[in-house]
Amino acid sequence: MSCLCWFKRRSRKGRSSSSGKRGASSTATVSVSGPATATATTTTTTTASAESTSRSDDSGAVRPVSKSAGSSQSQRSISSLYEERGHGQLRVFDYDELQGATAEFGRAQKLGEGGFGSVYKGFIRAADGKGDRVPVAVKKLNQRGMQGHKQWLAEVQFLGVLEHPNLVKLLGYCAVDSERGAQRLLVYEFMPNKSLEDHLFRRANPPLPWNRRLQVILGAAEGLAYLHEGEVQVIYRDFKTSNVLLDKDFRAKLSDFGLAREGPTGANTHVSTAVVGTQGYAAPEYMDTGHLTTKSYVWSFGVVLYEILTGRRSLDRNRPAAEQKLLEWVAQFPPDSRNFRMIMDPRLRGEYSVKAAREIAKLADSCLLKNAKERPTMSEVVEVLGRAVQAHAEPDSGAPGPGPGAKGKKTDAATPSRRRRD
Where would I find the Protein kinase domain in this sequence (predicted)? Predict the structure, then answer.
């Protein structure tokens, strides 16, 4: 039985008691509106969150607004696409199967923990039981509260529809109600090289070489461009280094779509929602107004670009006071200044292209412009990063090909013409 149908069946049982209450906790009500309204009230329609321009309340619920005549169009919603094709692509797992695959969710199998719950490494066979077992990552919902359930449902429906080489692949899910309580799990492809965060900030891992950093951030940019400009516009809402996972070949894959929302449609310019996300990555206009656009997460991308260059976190309370906020610190060393190299990650040991680093810093500055409309699109960002990667890979004219630690490639990767942020 598909995930969506499962919730619809439950919704018919509880509709009489919950349909008139705002923010009702029944699991059934969430399924009616789909992932775009995963933080919406039970009276919100499937298109309300994608088209709302109203401010949300403190609970995170989006107040529905009427669709204007000017915004009418045929754009499909994630929930309708999921009903049409998404659930057929996902495997429905038994709880006992996943419990066995993870050694009963043993501590030795635990990969990490977040607001949603814990993630475990497991091994499963194909649905027909044939072939060798393959490694997977199993995310198990923390049973406290409804927010985790809403994020679980959003992930099922978004990743049941979206498909791109730079998005993590959702293999299936488990949804069981029993005497043990409500069990909600997600099963993903396994990412053996952990996250970009692990390699940038945790000294237990070897530092990422310069060229690999460029390849990783280019892949992340291509994933965001797909979300922003694909069949359905998706606003990711939680772009940060810990959500950029790395496969066996260090290909970047965006993960954690529990906070994702559908973008505005028609005449609407933004989506309104309660402010969520991670401190240090949220755009100032989103923090001030709760208005979401794709440009809000171009800002987040600019923050991560500086993390790639510096090897520093966007916010680090363990550093001296003047260096705790990354963007304030790097502002002292503009890309064209003589002291620009002061910001570069010392773990690179000087083995990077200074010209490419300057251009990437300029690109980061354009992503961090105060006026959101002046920031580049993610397609423009991909274009600039692609040129930077190409410039780094090309040997200097008349010189032998570079080794793994070659420096100073001479080709510039010009950024879009932008003014520096205030």
Answer: 105-395
